[in-house]
Amino acid sequence: MRSFDFTPYRRSTIGFDRLFEFLENANREQGDNYPPYDIEKLSDDRYRITLAVAGFSPNDIDITARQNLLTITGRKAENRSRDGSFVHMGIATRAFERRFELADFVRVEDADMKDGLLSVELVREIPDAMKPRKIEINGAAPRTLEAEAGAERASAEEEHAAA
Asked: Using one digit for the tens of pLDDT, what is the confidence trace for 50-81?
């Protein structure tokens, strides 16, 4: 794969260092595809990562969430004998580590394991201070746009109930 030089962009942007580091690291990682995984968007603010971890128990898997990084590690003690009792060993139970870069304000909500699939639920929670807000002129108190939409809905429901 071709590599790109982001230096000209780094000189003309401020605060995008993390994005450029992510792009450079993604270009360097020509890693292994084990274990396979899916990323599902459940709604605007909810996601699910599902990993196929057949042969691993919940005790063999470690999930670590740090700021903007989710690491899923699997370590299994090899207990299958290699003394000739297997004709073919095709089920992979080798150690693995998967890293997922998370956007700001995304947190791990839950993890569940069923039928050899590990599901990790993620939710994006934007703090109220970061949500768009309407600024009133002449010193009126600022309100979030969500609160304003809720107030409009409530007044419409009151008008409908009165009619």
From this structure: 999 988 999 999 999 998 889 999 998 766 66
Residues 115 and 133 in one domain: no
What total number of domains does the chain contain?
A: 3
In angstroms, rounded to a whole number, what is the distance separating the alpha carbons of residues 149 and 133? 11
For the stretch 7-58, pLDDT in tens is 776 667 776 676 767 666 665 555 668 899 999 999 989 999 999 998 899 9
Q: Is the dihedral of CA 127, 130, 131, 135 positive or negative?
A: positive
The reported pLDDT for the residue numbered 25 is: 65
Answer for the pair 116, 92: CB distance below 8 angstroms, yes or no: no
Are 95 and 118 contained in the same domain?
yes
CA angle 149, 150, 154 (to 5 degrees): 120
pLDDT score at 97: 92
Give the model's pLDDT for residue 151. Answer: 67
Query: What range does the domain containing 133 cover?
Result: 129-162
Determine if the peptide bond prior to 58 is cis (ω within 30°).
Answer: no
Domain with residue 41: its CATH number is 2.60.40.790
138 Ramachandran zone, left/alpha/beta (phi>0; psi -120 to 50) = left
